[in-house]
């Protein structure tokens, strides 16, 4: 059964609908994610490119080529980080832009580059 996930940027110009099963929900603390988002750790989830439509008044997000295989996506109006659009048919969206980001299927299952986080940054600590 296809499930809809919707979200968008801070100003509402860039909106998306992702229809399908989210893949690879994870957090990442690599330097690229830190600089792209301004956060120490970013939570991500992936969808096949054909499962994501950009349906807000601003259309598709602006992109900046961040590596030899991916571009970072953001709103050209408010600057909100939206995710990454890979050359492979994958769009990775940051969980903070989802309207309902507490859905169980979006819960991160792994943490990439945990060694790159500041040593005082504790994720999931008691």
From TrEMBL:
GO terms for molecular function: carbon-sulfur lyase activity; metal ion binding. SUPFAM superfamilies: Mss4-like. The keyword Metal-binding applies. It holds the Pfam family GFA. The keyword Nucleus does not apply. It comes from the Bacteria. Transmembrane segments: none annotated. Residues 5-110 form the CENP-V/GFA domain. Keywords: Lyase, Metal-binding, Zinc. PANTHER family: CENP-V_GFA DOMAIN-CONTAINING PROTEIN-RELATED (PTHR33337:SF40), GFA DOMAIN-CONTAINING PROTEIN (PTHR33337). Belongs to the Gfa family. This is GFA family protein. The lineage of its organism: Bacteria, Pseudomonadati, Pseudomonadota, Gammaproteobacteria, Alteromonadales.
